[in-house]
Design goal:
By secondary structure, the protein is of the alpha/beta class. The protein is built from six helices and six strands, in the order E-H-E-H-E-H-H-E-H-H-E-E. It starts with a strand and ends in a 20-residue tail after the last strand. The structure holds adenosine-5'-triphosphate and magnesium ion (MG).
């Protein structure tokens, strides 16, 4: 089935990693692609997930526009999408998590068409999890779960910076 975690509230990435923990605990093989998070940016969930045998994590150099000035990193994500496709169709993984893929699609990286083609053919025995902020209007019809995190309160609004172990 296809899952979407989106919205402006906190909890999209951490929910997907929570699901990865649950799945791996039950013997499912999980692969997590972290888009827009450069390799040098290592978050707590990555450190923990790398200790779990059934979870593989893949990261790239492409930076999140949030860290690099919006729009400056708009290049093709062909390699990333090709690798994700292999994981989805290769039969090796039961769960494929594409963390921040919704940002990638929303911000117009040149992979939207390819991704929309791919999502129509996801094998029935694969759980595909998509997270990120942005427009999901072209994606949601393919999803079985759509969860929207609502940003009612966040310490960021009180100028409190991201905290280690909580935000990263
Ligand atoms: P998390 O990684 O905590 O599950 P997320 O995946 O929902 O959050 P992103 O949109 O990926 O959030 O944002 C990246 C960073 O911004 C994370 O450190 C996250 O905790 C933080 N964040 C999430 N929501 C907000 C918000 N409403 N205001 C400010 N920062 C936020
Ligand atoms: Mg996130």
């Amino acid at each position: 089935m296809i899952h979407i975690y989106t919205g402006n509230g906190k909890g999209k990435t951490t929910s997907s990693f929570g699901l990865a923990m649950r799945a791996s605990g039950q013997g499912l093989k999980v692969i997590i692609f972290q888009f827009l998070k450069p390799k040098k940016l290592v978050c707590g969930e990555e450190i923990s997930a790398r200790k779990i045998r059934n979870i593989k994590i893949v990261k790239y150099e492409q930076q999140h526009p949030m860290f690099n000035g919006r729009g400056k990193t708009k290049k093709s994500m062909k390699i990333e999408i090709t690798e994700a496709r292999k994981a989805i169709f290769g039969g090796k993984y039961d769960m494929v998590i594409l963390d921040e893929i919704i940002n990638v699609i929303d911000q117009g990286f040149s992979c939207k068409k390819e991704f929309l083609k791919l999502i129509k053919k996801v094998p029935k025995d694969v759980e595909l999890i998509l997270t990120g902020r942005g427009d999901i209007s072209e994606l949601e019809k393919f999803a079985d779960y759509v969860t929207i995190m609502v940003d009612k309160k966040h310490p960021f609004m009180q100028q409190i910076n991201a905290r280690r172990g909580i935000e990263y």
